[in-house]
Design a protein that fits this description.
Chain lengths: 387, 127
C-alpha cells in the first residue's frame, strides 16, 4: 500500500505513539484487503463499548488510549452492556461491572465521540450525501449504510474503525470502490414476509454470500423489515452489502430462499416453544417502530416482562411524541444505551428462554448469553403475549 | 504466494482448524481455550501455538478478544490464514502478533502438530 510522506511519518512514530498504533492498524487492514492507498472518511461508528465483550484488557486499553487520542472526524459508538438510568432494577449486575462499564463510557467520551451508545446510528442522524466514505464497525449499520443509505464502508473491525476515527482515514478497498462485482442473486420465494422472515433471509444471505449479494423477489419492505435483514445478514458472515434487483442479472449465480431454506435457519436459532420474557430490539427500535408498537399495544397489556431497546435519542423523541405512554402502560420496559445482544441485563439465573422477533438477537442470546430462544414476528408476539 | 499482514518472527507448533474462527464467541478471552463445541479444536488452547485457520468470522469486537489474549499471555505466537479479514488483521496489528496469508496450496501443506519457524524478514518465510 502506498502511503503519503505524512502518513509514513506517522507510521514511523514521528507524531506520537497513538497515531503510530492507528496507522499500524490501517496498514495491516489495508494489506489484508489489497488496498492501494488510504482515503479520507467522514464518519466512524465504533464497536467495542460493552464491558461484557471487551473485558478488563479492553477497558484498560481504552483508558490508556484516551489519555491523548482524540477523534478527528464525527464518531458514534455502539451500545454498552447496561442502561445506567435503570440499573437499580437489575440487582444481579455487580458493582464491578457498573464501574468498569462507566470507565469505558468515560474513555470514549474523553476521546470526543458522540455518546450515542446505539447500534442504529442511521436512526439518529441524517445520513451524509451519497457515496460518502464512512467507517462502520457495527455490522448491521455497515450493511444499512452501504445498501440503503448509499454510503461506502467495509465491514470494519472494532480496531479498524477506531483507527479511522483517530486518523480520519480508511484503506481504499473492497466495498469502498465503485466497481463492485456481485456474483450471486438470492431469490426470495416467500410471500408476504414478516420482519422475522426478512431476518432469516439476511442470515441465510450472509452465510452463502461473499462481500455483496443481490436479492430478488422483494418489493419495498418497511423499515422494520429492512433493519431485520441488515441485522440477520451481519450476524452470519462477511457479507456487507445487498441490493434489491427486479430483473435477475443473467450472469449471476442464483440461490433460492424458500420454505426449506427458511426452516433450516429457523431450526438453527429457535430452540424453545415459549419464552420467560420478551425482548424487542436488535437492532434497537427506531421512532417509527415505537410509534407502530404504541398503536399495536393500545388497550392491551404484556403478559410477561417485555424489554424494549432503543437509543437514548429515539427514546427522548418518543417521549416528546407520547409514544412511550401506551407502551409503558402496557408494561413494556423501555431501555436505552444497550441492546438484546450481549447485555447482562437478562439474568440467566432466572431466565431459561427469551421470545424475540430478532434473528441477530436470537444468535447472541443462544451463543453468548446462553439462553434458549423462541422466535416470533412482532404481530404474533402481540397476539400471543398480550391480553 | 504468501502475503505478510503483520511482520514478526515466531517458532512453535501448528494448531490447525479448517473452520473459520469467531473470536468473540468461540475463544475464551483469558485462557485461549476454544469454548464452542462446533469446532474441531474444541477444548484445545490456542495459547503459544502457530494458529492456522481459514479466516475470521463474526463480530467486529473479535479484535478485542485477540488483544485480550495477548494481555493475558494466552495469544497464539503467530496466525496463518487463507484469507485475510479486518477483525483478525487489526487484532494482530494491535497485539503485535505476526500474521500471514497463504495460498490454498500452502495452507493445505501446513500440518497440525508440526514444528514451524516463521520470519517475515527473510525471503523464505517458513522453515
Amino acid at each position: 500500500m502506498e502511503l503519503t510522506p505524512e502518513e509514513k511519518a506517522a507510521l514511523n512514530g514521528e507524531h506520537g505513539e497513538t497515531l503510530q498504533t492507528a496507522y499500524r492498524i490501517l496498514v495491516a487492514t489495508g494489506e489484508a484487503t489489497n488496498a492501494e492507498r488510504l482515503v479520507p472518511i467522514k464518519w466512524a461508528h465504533l464497536s467495542g463499548v460493552n464491558y461484557n465483550t471487551i473485558g478488563d484488557s479492553g477497558e484498560e486499553f481504552l483508558k490508556e488510549l484516551s489519555k491523548d487520542a482524540r477523534v478527528k472526524v464525527k464518531a458514534t459508538v455502539n451500545p454498552m452492556g447496561i442502561d445506567f438510568d435503570h440499573i437499580s432494577k437489575f440487582s444481579h449486575i455487580d458493582d464491578e461491572f457498573i464501574q468498569k462499564q462507566a470507565s469505558i463510557r468515560d474513555s470514549y467520551i474523553r476521546m470526543g465521540v458522540e455518546p450515542t451508545f446505539s447500534c442504529t446510528p442511521y436512526d439518529i442522524f441524517d445520513l451524509p450525501e451519497k457515496n460518502t466514505q464512512v467507517s462502520f464497525a457495527e455490522s448491521n449499520a455497515a450493511i444499512f449504510a452501504n445498501s440503503l443509505g448509499g454510503l461506502k464502508t467495509n465491514k470494519e473491525s472494532a480496531f479498524s474503525a477506531l483507527a479511522s476515527a483517530i486518523t480520519g482515514k480508511s484503506p481504499y478497498s473492497d466495498l469502498r470502490k465503485d466497481d463492485i462485482t456481485t456474483p450471486m442473486t438470492i431469490r426470495m420465494k416467500m410471500d408476504n414476509p414478516s420482519e422475522l422472515d426478512f431476518g432469516m433471509l439476511g442470515f441465510f444471505a450472509g452465510k452463502v454470500g461473499d462481500t455483496s449479494v443481490n436479492i430478488s423477489g422483494v418489493s419495498k419492505p418497511n423499515r422494520r423489515s429492512c433493519k431485520a435483514l441488515c441485522g440477520g445478514m451481519g450476524t452470519s458472515g462477511t457479507c456487507a452489502k445487498f441490493q434489491f434487483v427486479d430483473d435477475e442479472d443473467e450472469k449471476s449465480e442464483k440461490v433460492d430462499f424458500g420454505k426449506e431454506e427458511m426452516n433450516e435457519v429457523f431450526d438453527e436459532l429457535n430452540t424453545a416453544e415459549k419464552g420467560d420474557l420478551i425482548t424487542l430490539g436488535s437492532p434497537q427500535l427506531g421512532l417509527e417502530e415505537l410509534s407502530d408498537l404504541s398503536k399495536m399495544i393500545k388497550g392491551r397489556s404484556f403478559k410477561k416482562r417485555c424489554m424494549i431497546f432503543c437509543s437514548r435519542s429515539v427514546q427522548n423523541q418518543a417521549r416528546n411524541l407520547d409514544y412511550t405512554n401506551e407502551i409503558e402502560r402496557a408494561g413494556g420496559e423501555i431501555l436505552s444505551d444497550c441492546c438484546t445482544c450481549l447485555t447482562p441485563l437478562i439474568d440467566t439465573s432466572e431466565t431459561d428462554s427469551v421470545t424475540t422477533n430478532s434473528i441477530k438477537g436470537a444468535y447472541y442470546l443462544k451463543n453468548s448469553t446462553g439462553v434458549d430462544v423462541n422466535l416470533k414476528p412482532l404481530s404474533k408476539i402481540i397476539e400471543d403475549e398480550t391480553k | 504466494m504468501s502475503k505478510i499482514i503483520v511482520q514478526g518472527k515466531a517458532q512453535g507448533m501448528i494448531l490447525k482448524t479448517t473452520s473459520p474462527i469467531n473470536f468473540l464467541g468461540a475463544v475464551d478471552k483469558k485462557s485461549g481455550v476454544i469454548r464452542d463445541k462446533k469446532y474441531d479444536i474444541y477444548e484445545k488452547s490456542i495459547k503459544d501455538t502457530i494458529l492456522v485457520f481459514p479466516h475470521g468470522i463474526g463480530s467486529s469486537v473479535g479484535a478485542y478478544t485477540i488483544y485480550s489474549l495477548k494481555s493475558h499471555k494466552s495469544a497464539p505466537l503467530a496466525m496463518i490464514c487463507q484469507k485475510a479479514d479486518l477483525t483478525v488483521a487489526s487484532g494482530c496489528a494491535l497485539a503485535n502478533i505476526p500474521m500471514i496469508v497463504v495460498s490454498n496450496e500452502e495452507f493445505n501443506s501446513l500440518r497440525d502438530g508440526n514444528q514451524i519457524t516463521i520470519d517475515t524478514s527473510t525471503e523464505k518465510i517458513f522453515n
